[in-house]
Design a protein that fits this description.
There is one protein chain. The chain has helices spanning 48-51, 75-88, 96-108, 186-190, 193-201, 246-257, 312-325; strands at residues 20-26, 29-30, 34-36, 55-57, 60-64, 70-73, 122-131, 144-153, 164-168, 206-210, 218-221, 225-230, 233-236, 262-264, 277-282, 286-295, 301-303, 336-339. It has 340 residues and is α+β, with helices and mostly antiparallel strands. Strands 1, 2, 3, 4, 5, 6, 7, 8 and 18 form a nine-stranded antiparallel β-sheet that branches. Helix 2 (75-88) crosses helix 3. The chain binds pyridoxal-5'-phosphate and 2-OXO-4-methylpentanoic acid. The site of pyridoxal-5'-phosphate has 12 residues, from helix 6.
Length: 340
């Protein structure tokens, strides 16, 4: 049974569900998973997450198939990335098994909130790890909390699978070259809020960031990686300051499965002029096809998808990815974890 809500018109926003999962690290060890129906947590006023940004999060999705089964996409990869994020800002890493058990439990406890197959919506799973122990000097906490909540969602960008435009602004950086751009920590997102708001005010979906050092190469696209199609080849930026997207990694594999060559390499902004298709990809964004990239500082506009509908390779990749996620085609690579 699913709840009676308008699944087809869900946006990417918070809806209260029934339960969330918590697991505490205290006295040098992780405790048992706890189930809570409260939307609040009790925090020490000197917790390091509040003062010094000791916070990392993940985003993954569960999908209900035609067969009624619930599938979580690439749970193991999100678990591993959470470990890397924790290590990057000196938090106690959450063991992969505990992360996976907490995510599965969060879905199981909220089965009625998994959108039905026909809706095209999904259950977004948001695990977060925070430093809860008190410190006043700048130092890592001694205590941590893993929290997992779920919420049903529709498309991140309101256009869904339709062309959208993005803005380049040279005077904003999301992450420093040797900073924390490659891990999923809250501070990166705080750093992106202003550029994001300006982009939206000017009518764009999000900001396409250039590399912070030289302002020459494409980095990533708001809360998503960037890819383009050039002469039939899938190209995506190589950079130390972008988040290694699990969706992008999957699309590279799917492109290769479809006989499309894939390259990860630095992409100079001028090369946008040579693309026939482009998109932003991520768990929330899925694939959001990009029509135009406007460089607001140089005044140059690049049409990165030729025509006014998503390109054929982008569409093929999108359909293949979604078909795996909803169980419509075989999961050849073992990306799906069933919630039994
Ligand atoms: N880049 C950033 C900055 C993100 O926040 C996300 C979202 O997780 C992505 C890329 C896409 O990563 P993934 O495909 O693993 O969701
Ligand atoms: C995701 O795609 O899961 C993300 O984390 C993006 C998010 C910042 C909304």
């Amino acid at each position: 049974m699913s709840k009676s809500i308008d699944w087809k018109n869900l946006s990417f926003s918070y809806t209260k569900t029934d339960y969330n999962i918590r697991c505490y690290y205290r006295d040098g060890k992780w405790g048992e998973l706890e189930v809570s129906s409260s939307e609040n947590i009790d925090l020490h006023i000197a917790a390091t997450c509040l003062h010094y940004g000791q916070e990392a999060f993940e985003g993954l999705k569960a999908f209900k198939g035609k067969d009624g089964k619930i599938r979580i996409f690439r749970l193991d990869e999100n678990a591993k990335r959470m470990v890397r994020s924790a290590e990057g800002i000196m938090m106690q890493p959450i063991p992969v098994e505990i992360f996976e058990a907490a995510v599965i439990k969060a879905v199981k406890m909220n089965l009625e909130w998994v959108p039905p197959y026909e809706s095209g919506a999904s259950l977004y799973i948001r695990p977060l790890l925070i430093g809860t122990g008190p410190k006043v000097g700048v130092a890592p906490a001694d205590e941590y909390l893993l929290l997992v909540f779920v919420t049903p969602v529709g498309p991140y960008f309101k256009e869904g699978f339709r062309l959208t435009n993005v803005a380049v602004m040279h005077n904003f950086d999301r992450a420093a070259p040797n900073g924390t751009g490659h891990i999923k920590v809250g501070g990166n997102y705080a750093a992106s809020l202003k550029a994001g708001a300006i982009s939206k005010e000017k009518g764009y979906s999000t900001t396409l960031y250039l590399d912070s050092k030289e302002k020459k190469y494409i980095d990533e696209c708001g809360p998503a990686n960037f890819f383009g199609i050039k002469n039939g080849v899938y190209i995506t930026p190589e950079s130390k300051s972008i988040l290694p997207s699990i969706t992008n990694m999957s699309l590279i594999q799917l492109a290769q499965d479809l006989g499309i060559k894939a390259e990860r390499r630095p992409i100079p902004i001028e090369e946008l002029a040579e693309l026939s298709e482009a998109g932003a990809c991520g768990t929330a964004a899925v694939i959001t096809p990009i029509g135009w990239v406007d460089d607001l500082d140089t005044g140059t506009s690049y049409q990165v998808t030729r025509g006014d509908v998503p390109g054929p390779i982008t569409t093929n990749l999108y359909n293949t990815l979604r078909a795996i996620q909803y169980g419509d085609i075989e999961d050849k690579h073992g990306w799906i974890k069933f919630v039994e």
